Every structure is written in C-alpha cells, then in structure tokens.
Amino acid sequence: MVVSTEGTGKRARPDSRLPVVIVDDLHVEYKVYATGKRATEADRGGLLRRAKRTRTVHALKGVSFTAYENDSIGVIGSNGSGKSTLMRAITGLTPSSSGAVYAVSRPSMLGVGAALIKTLSGQRNVILGGLAMGLSKREVEERYDEIVDFAGIRPFIDLPMRTYSSGMTARLKFAIATVRKHEILIVDEALAVGDRKFRKRSEQRIREIRDNAGTVFLVSHSMQSIRDTCNRVIWIEKGELMMDGDPDEVISAYEATR
Amino acid sequence: MSSEVDDPQAYGLHRVGGRPPLLKYLRGVAQRRDFIVSLAKFRIEAENQRHRLGMLWIVLKPILEAAVFGLVFGTLMRSTRGVPDFIVFLIIGVFVFEFFSSSFGAGSKAITNNQALVQSLSFPRMSLPISVVTQKFMQLVPTIVLLMVFLLALGHKASLNWFLMVPLLILYYMFCLGLAFITARLTVHLPDLSNLLPFASRFLFYTSGIFFSVDVRFADTPLLLKYVEYQPLYAFLSLARELLLDSDPLYDVRTQFWPILVCWSIGLLIVGTIFFWAAEERYGRVD
Ligand SMILES: Nc1ncnc2c1ncn2[C@@H]1O[C@H](COP(=O)(O)OP(=O)(O)O)[C@@H](O)[C@H]1O
Ligand SMILES: [Mg+2]
C-alpha cells in the first residue's frame, strides 16, 4: 500500500524529501449506542435488549497516502465525509480498527480549546493553554507577550473568556496552539471564524511552519485558504480517498461535483 | 504485511497512538507537572469566582457541614455516647473525610468529564486524575490549618505530634490518588459506575466512625470491630484524631495503624498506576 502511493504517477516521489506521515490502509469504525429508535424497527424486545444495541459507523474505509516534510496538505470533502476522523487518527487520538498510521513524531492538533476554562480571564487561559500544549512554565512566561499580541486581544486580556466573541476566542486558541514548534501540525476548520486580517496572519504562520521543515494538514471549506497555503490537496468523500494531488486539479474536480 | 511495516521503520517512523512503556510514561507525567498543578489551581479559582465570598468558601463549606452534623448527631440522635469532646471528634472526622469523598467522586469522573480535552490534545491521561485529586488536596490543606486554629481556640494544646499530620496527609493523598486511578479507568469502561460510586462513598461515611466512636458502638460485634481495624479510612481518621488530640486517652489509638496505612497507600498507588496506564490507548475512544 505504502509503495503504491508513490507509484500512482500522480505524484512522483520527491527523492530529497523524507516521509513524515504514512497512512496505511486506514479504517476507522465508531461503535455508538443507538439511543433513538430507527424508523424500521418497532418497540419489540425488552428494555435491556434495546439498550445494548449498537450501530457501527464506518467513517474511514481504507485510506492510504504518504506525507513528506515541507508538505502542506489541504483536506477537503463534504460534511461528515471523515476529514476530522482522519485528522484525529493521524494524531493517534482515534484508534484505527485496521490499518495504521506511522509518523516521525506525534502530530499535534490545533485543539487547545478544550483545555481552557471559559470563566477565567484570557491571561489565565494563555498560561493554562500553553501548559496544556506541553510548554514549561518558564516557556509560557517567555512567550506570553507574543501570544497575546498575535491574538490581538491585549485590551481584553483581563476579562473572562466567556465574554469574548467567537472570532476573538478562535484567535486566542490559534495563537496559543501555534506558539510551540510543531513538526506536524493539524488545523481542522480553526480559521473559519476569524476576520480577514486574522486569516491572512494565521495562513502566514502556517506557511512559516511549513517552511521550517514542518508538515501541515489544513482542513478547510475555504478553497481560497487552501489554494493560498497548500501544495497538495486530499479529497475525502464518504470515508474514501477520492483524489490526492495538485491543489488546482483536485479542487476543480471537487467543485465539479457540487 | 511485513513489507508495509518495514517501510515506515526504515525512515524512522513510529506507529502513533501506542502506549509508551511504564517508566517512560511516568516521566511524561512528571514533565506535565506544571500543567497538572495549574489546572488544579485554576479550577479552584473558577469554582469560587462566581461567589461573593470567593476562596473563603473553601473553609466555610466544611464548617457548615460540621455544624449540620453536630446538630443532627450531637443533639438529635445523641450519638455522643462515650465520646468526650464530641464536637472536636466530629469536626476532625468530617474535615478529614471530606477529602476522600470529594476526590473519590470527582476522581472517578476525571476522564469521562473531560472527553473533549482527551480527544483533542495528546498528553499522558494520568495528568487528569492527578490534577483532580491535587485540586481536592489543595482544598483540604487550609481546612486542616483552620482545624488547628479551632483546637487552639478551644483550649487544646499544640504538640509536636501535629507535625506528624504531614506524613499522614501525604499517605492520605497517595491513597486517594491510587483509588482515583482505578475508578477513573473503571468509569470509562462502565459509565454506570458514576451512579453507584456515591453509594459506596456514603457507606464508608457511615461506617468509618465519623459521628460515633467505633469502639463503643461496635463493642459487642467483634466482626465489625475486625472490619474497622483494617478499614483504611477509619485508620486515617483515628490517626488524625490521635495526632491532634493526644491529651485524651480515648484517642490514644494503636500505632499499628501506621504500617497498615503505609501498605494501603503505597499498594493502592502502585496498583492504580499500572491499572490506569494499561488502558492509556482506550481513553480517547468514543465508543
Ligand atoms: N465521535 C463519534 N461517534 C460516532 N460517530 C462519529 C463520531 N465522530 C464522527 N462520527 C461519524 O463519522 C463520520 C465522519 O465524521 P467526521 O470525521 O467528523 O466528518 P467531517 O469532519 O468530514 O465533517 C460521520 O458520519 C459522523 O457521523
Ligand atoms: Mg470536521
């Protein structure tokens, strides 16, 4: 599988660049306790039998590709096609049901939001978020000003985070999450809410990461963002890899199906 | 299959999401200590921020609790039988037990209540139960200081034994931490447990001699006395009373409680650590 990715002809294997992520025939299944009744099934069976019924959602059905250093890969596809699942599987947060993901270092998601406490001030949350990203206390203190300035929320830094607009929150999260050096960074629809200025700045930062030998995965519904930042695009549909290659080619094929 | 696996390794790639060996895992936890402590501190801050009296509630709550129990058991149910200094006896019991019940309750939900965090950032999951128990411990320490002030105000004398509260509380922390590791993992496998554990906690509350003297009450039931002898919570409470009130012969409790507690705490911490670590890959999963 891995070898064949290089032999598809769509992308010649760039000899000088080393693979950093190899996704090998990846399947992910979610088993969910179905609480709602399905239309076809009536009320038969006891309470216990119904409680035990699970449904399996086959979210990824055999995805394979190889990402190289300095790659900046856009991931596109309609809602529910499995993009977030693929990203979580790449970070190791969602286990595969078969197949595997290999990486040079553990990829990190831009998902610092869950570590923050909304009722506390922005200042507290910068510290907490930085520590959650794996920085030491000293490193957080050193980078504090940089984070606050990048987020552009200095006048509001002492207010509780619950008073921030969704754009301000997104900016703060992005600023915290990208303060650390990432070898492999995953951005899953994190830039959509920010204003234009912030989007430009964050795209710039993604390019910087890529240029520093990093690898970036960018999930986005903004084809413009993807064209501006990515050198390669992967299109996922219903859990299958539809296309993998040059941004313009893949995006026009994707848009033709809309 | 083997050629596919060999290929990534040739480039120094590793399978993601694997569980590191125990020692490496524990080093990873140690590296996260700043995060663990800050999370605990900030959660206390967030909890108390909404209230006018803020952090004062950390000590106000146990005082009110002791007042309610004192009223109920001291005057209504007359369980003071055979207990000199009933108020002090009760307050020590309530304050010390509070750490167990709060860390037991919150510790068992350390993973299940933080699913979003577990699913979006990678860090050793053990950080979460440690942070919860540390948070409760940070709330315990000021109440113990308050207790000492209260004892002095009632005319009890401070003694060198009070310093032994430090090792006792450390053992108590280790005990609750080990327990939290076990219940946090069990609750992931079996979410229904979070409905059952409060009953276990309450059972222990009523059988650990918090508002009655075990020796007096269980005197004619040797089996219960035997149970209580190895019941770690009773040992923690008794030792705390002995250390804080050494003037009174009733509280001159057997010193064999120390080795029993050392065994319980270290044993539970080791078992809990391994038990929790073994399921590390399981915690992020959604099924
Ligand atoms: N935690 C989950 N539990 C069960 N099913 C899930 C879960 N997350 C995603 N799915 C299912 O997997 C499929 C892919 O979802 P997702 O990866 O979030 O899609 P996308 O990010 O492309 O919109 C969807 O059918 C969704 O319902
Ligand atoms: Mg998504």
Automatic annotation (TrEMBL), chain A:
Instruction: Indicate whether Hydrolase appears among the record's keywords.
Output: no
Organism placement in taxonomy = Bacteria, Bacillati, Actinomycetota, Actinomycetes, Propionibacteriales
List the SMART domains.
AAA
Q: Name one GO cellular component term.
A: membrane
Q: Which family does it belong to?
A: Belongs to the ABC transporter superfamily.
Cross-referenced InterPro entries, in alphabetical order?
AAA+_ATPase, ABC_transporter-like_ATP-bd, ABC_transpr_TagH-like, Bact_Polysacc_Export_ATP-bd, P-loop_NTPase
Q: Name one GO molecular function term.
A: ATP binding
Query: Metal-binding: present as a keyword of the record?
Result: no
Signal sequence extent: none
| Keywords recorded for this protein, A-Z | ATP-binding, Nucleotide-binding, Transport
Gene3D superfamilies for this protein: P-loop containing nucleotide triphosphate hydrolases
Q: What is this protein called?
A: ABC transporter ATP-binding protein
Residue ranges of domain ABC transporter in the record = 42-258
UniProtKB/TrEMBL annotation, chain B:
Q: GO CC terms for this protein? A: plasma membrane
Query: What is the taxonomic lineage of the source species?
Result: Bacteria, Bacillati, Actinomycetota, Actinomycetes, Propionibacteriales
Keywords (alphabetical) are:
Cell inner membrane, Cell membrane, Membrane, Transmembrane, Transmembrane helix, Transport
What PROSITE patterns does the record tag this protein with? ABC_TM2
Residue span, ABC transmembrane type-2 domain: 53-279
Identify the main location. membrane
Per the UniProt record, one Pfam family is: ABC2_membrane
Put simply, this protein is called Transport permease protein
Record GO biological process: lipopolysaccharide transport
Spell out the family assignment given in the record's similarity comment.
Answer: Belongs to the ABC-2 integral membrane protein family.
User: Any idea where this protein resides?
Assistant: Cell inner membrane; Cell membrane
Q: Which residues cross the membrane?
A: 53-74, 86-107, 128-154, 160-184, 257-279
Which GO MF terms are attached to this record? ABC-type transporter activity
InterPro entries from the UniProt entry? ABC2_TM, ABC2_TM_bact-type
Membrane association type:
Multi-pass membrane protein
